[in-house]
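name: query_chain
kind: protein
chains: 1
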Amino acid sequence: MDRTQLSREKFNELFGEFPTIDSKDPELMEILQKFIFGEVFYVGDLEDSLRELVTVVLLAVQQTFPQLKAHTEAALRIGVTPIEIKEAIYQCAPFIGFPKTLNAVNAINEVFEEQGIALPLPSQKQVTEEERFEKGKAIQTPIYGDEIQQAHQDLPENLKTVVPNFLTAFGFGDFYTRSGLSLQTRELLILCMLVANGQEKQILAHAKGNLKVGNSKEVLLATMIHCLPYIGFPNVLNAISIINKS
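structure:
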């Protein structure tokens, strides 16, 4: 099949009936449909379910809610569970902050309610208040060691442990420990968040982290190509360059 046929097939699979080209901007919509659904979706060995989780996260980072809702519907259509979608959005909180994360949660909840999915979803929490630091550290240390602690050694004594401890207990203890997504998927989605925001130093660290948890360089590069239509060439090309050095 050529890319026109491929785009129709993939779009139908994700969204249902292929739309009539928007009469107000037909040329842009035609370019979009053929590029995303006729080319990008066929690059690399990635499951469509993972592609849609990546897309949902990218749209959450960028706060593009009409598209976020559409891709939440698409993810559900192809078998991604509500818990997987919500966990992907929850995982955004340490990287984009709570206000944007709450906006994204509200958008996906609207879709869930429209589709008759009961809220709140079952809890995925796996730690108690007393153990969140230690369980977070048990995940963090094998992947990232003590990089953050070392980076803050020059701060005043009363401040040098604040950010590292928050990262361990909050970033890892409250989020990485949750069920609903594998560690490999969480790391890959986090990398995509960082790429969408152009955070080059953290991209390098998390590219290495992805390799440690079992995501191959081929998977990372294919995922970056999937990000292209949603965040543009500059951020993706920078990320590919960084990943190749990891």
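note: DSSP finds 14 helices and no strands in the chain.
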